[in-house]
Design goal:
The protein has about 350 residues and is α+β, with helices and mostly antiparallel strands. The chain has two domains: about 5-165, Aminotransferase class 4, branched-chain amino acid transferase, N-terminal domain (D-amino Acid Aminotransferase, Chain A, domain 1); about 175-340, D-amino Acid Aminotransferase, subunit A, domain 2 (D-amino Acid Aminotransferase, Chain A, domain 2). It has helices spanning about 65, 90-105, 110-125, 195-200, 205-210, 260-270, 280-290, 330-340, and strands spanning about 5-10, 35-40, 45-50, 70, 75-80, 85-90, 135-145, 160-165, 175-180, 215-220, 230, 235-240, 245, 275, 295-300, 305-315, 315-320, 350-355. Strands 1, 2, 3, 4, 5, 6, 7, 8 and 18 form a nine-stranded mixed beta sheet that branches. A six-stranded mixed barrel has the order 9-10-11-12-15-16, surrounded by four helices. Strand 2 and strand 3 (about 45-50) form a beta hairpin. The longest helix has 15 residues, at about 110-125. It starts with 6 loop residues before the first strand and ends with a strand. The relative contact order is 0.14. It binds 2-OXO-4-methylpentanoic acid. 2-OXO-4-methylpentanoic acid binds near residues 74, 200, 234, 300 and 301. 2-OXO-4-methylpentanoic acid (COI) binds next to loops.
């Protein structure tokens, strides 16, 4: 762990915390008082500091802006009923960030910078962690290339930064999603399995087209056969068909979601049958037609569980059972919420108390 002495800390002289009701703010728009920064140059990480959250002067030649060497993570801190602040499975985010870094030819971030920097940041900004049942502090660690150069090559310099924002529910209501057949989120051999910024940029146009048709999100299918569902929007995708929990098997086109993994583990703990495999749109439509499609939902750090209320497929809309009639997803949602609040036995040791 990085000793706090190695991180130069400049605390804010004017906290903005009292300006907001942090239990009631829009997602991703209000930022906590401080940010953590680590700089990489000459082949090593150096200069770790925490400073008041602020804009920074930037060259318009910054390589991240032109060639997309930009990766990120999404994670959350929770305040338990007894006032402690804990992170949910932070080492999974740490490992995944470094997987993304390798794929994008960026340097890996050492544990003492990622976890150590985050610990120090949260000690300063613990007052920004919402106390409401559905609230959390959304944490955005990210890395960008910072060479000022227009030639296409991996940058020699990088910044790893952590910013935080109090957050409530990502989706206020269950969502309506459209199965997308023309545009693809990721391709074999591509970067779909990592959290590269470009994965999100390329999703925006098809999402906009779906939104113009009255849907909130799309369901992505595989680019090779166009037959199998992969993810929904920025989330992993799950179905309950009959008594089985189904989700697409991980591959190089699907992100290994931490919420995905947690939901599967809880389902297995509860004795539910779980299948990770290819799921075709035909299978989903057949299950809808014969009445065995009980639930569909997305999983992700920001959304946790986003219930899908209807699926659009080839100009038809397929309504799903009411949320009140769903047996698994509301229950697992509540279980994870309580676990994060310290009200459930943490049998998998997923929570890491930081202050
Ligand atoms: C997350 O769930 O953390 C995501 O990455 C989704 C989105 C906010 C980009």
């Amino acid at each position: 762990m990085i000793a706090s002495a190695e991180i130069k800390i400049t605390p804010t002289t004017k906290s903005r915390l009292s300006e907001y009701d942090i239990n009631n703010v829009p997602f991703g728009k209000i930022f906590a008082d401080h940010m953590f920064v680590a700089e990489y140059e000459n082949g090593k990480w150096s200069k770790c500091y925490i400073q008041p959250y602020q804009d920074v002067p930037m060259s318009y030649a910054l390589s991240a802006l032109h060639y997309g060497q930009a990766i990120f993570e999404g994670m959350k801190a929770y305040k338990s009923d007894d006032g402690h602040v804990s992170l949910f499975r932070p080492y999974e985010n740490f490992n995944r960030l470094n997987k993304s870094a390798i794929r994008m030819a960026m340097p890996e971030v050492p544990e003492e910078i990622f976890i150590g920097g985050l610990r120090e940041l949260l000690k300063l900004d613990q007052g920004w962690v919402p106390t409401s049942d559905t609230g959390s502090l959304y944490i955005r660690p990210f890395m960008i290339s910072t060479d000022e150069a227009i030639g296409v090559k991996a940058s020699d310099t990088y910044k790893f930064i952590i910013i935080c924002c109090p957050a409530g529910k990502y989706y206020a209501e269950p969502v309506k999603v459209l199965i997308e057949h023309h545009y693809f989120r990721s391709v074999r051999g591509g970067v779909g399995y990592v959290k590269a910024a470009g994965n999100y940029g390329r999703s925006l146009y098809p999402t906009k087209l779906a939104q113009e048709k009255g849907f909130q999100q799309v369901i992505w299918t595989d680019s090779e056969t166009n037959k199998y569902v992969e993810e929904s929007g920025t989330m992993n995708l799950m179905f309950v068909i009959g008594d089985t929990l189904l989700t697409p098997a991980l591959s190089d086109t699907i992100l290994a979601g931490i919420t995905r993994d947690s939901v599967l583990a809880v389902a297995r703990d509860w004795g539910m049958k779980v299948e990770e495999r290819k799921i075709s749109t035909e299978e989903i439509m057949a299950a809808h037609a014969n009445g065995t499609l009980k639930e569909a939902f997305g999983t992700g750090t920001a959304a946790t569980i986003a219930h899908i209320r209807a699926i659009g497929y080839e100009d038809n809309l397929y309504e799903l059972p009411a949320i009140e009639d769903r047996k698994f997803s509301p229950k697992v949602d509540e279980f994870l919420r309580n676990l994060r609040k310290g009200r459930e036995n943490d049998m998998h040791h997923w929570m890491l108390q930081v202050c």
